[in-house]
Design brief:
globular, five-stranded mixed sheet, alpha/beta, Nucleotidyltransferase, domain 5, about 160 residues
């Protein structure tokens, strides 16, 4: 069984999805969005993300964690620092639980799933739904992005091919 945890990092909302490769197709074993309130101190928010990602890894031990590579506009340096902190705690959680981390650029996942590296959120979600043959609403763009990252990681490692 090949299973990947895809993570779309963010301080306010971190999407995650555990996707398993099957003989024909794939299955989503778990997904969600870790939300942290802006009233909390940054350290508390990072701790929440670290603890929740650690719980997911323990419950669904993945072969790999695929995280979205940092993409930040230079106009927002504080956002870049926060994203780096979030990516850091996610990477440490994975490392502490002996899971390798693989980075994927957003455009790479979009290109792999839709054939268009500049695809919009809806196009990515539709591609994920088609590939996983599901009509279940994900409830968040962060979740569908995490699923796209997981599928890209499975594919890049030769564990999953989609139609």
């Amino acid at each position: 069984m090949w299973q990947v945890l895809g993570v779309d990092p963010g301080l306010a909302a971190t999407g995650f999805a555990v996707v398993e490769a099957l003989d024909s197709g794939g299955r989503v074993n778990d997904y969600g969005c870790i939300k942290t309130g802006s009233a909390l101190a940054t350290q508390e928010r990072l701790s929440i993300i670290y603890n929740r990602i650690s719980e997911v890894i323990r419950k669904w031990p993945p072969n790999l964690l695929v995280i979205e590579d940092a993409f930040v506009h230079m106009k927002y340096p504080k956002a870049a620092l926060q994203l780096g902190e979030v990516r850091g705690v996610i990477s440490v959680a994975a490392r502490n639980l002996n899971v390798d981390v693989f980075e994927v650029r957003p455009s790479e996942a979009k290109l792999a799933l839709t054939g268009n590296g500049a695809a919009g959120k809806k196009q990515v979600e539709n591609a994920v739904r088609r590939i996983l043959n599901t009509g279940v609403p994900f409830g968040s763009n962060h979740v569908s992005d995490a699923m796209a990252l997981a599928l890209t990681g499975l594919s890049r490692n030769g564990w999953f091919n989609w139609p």
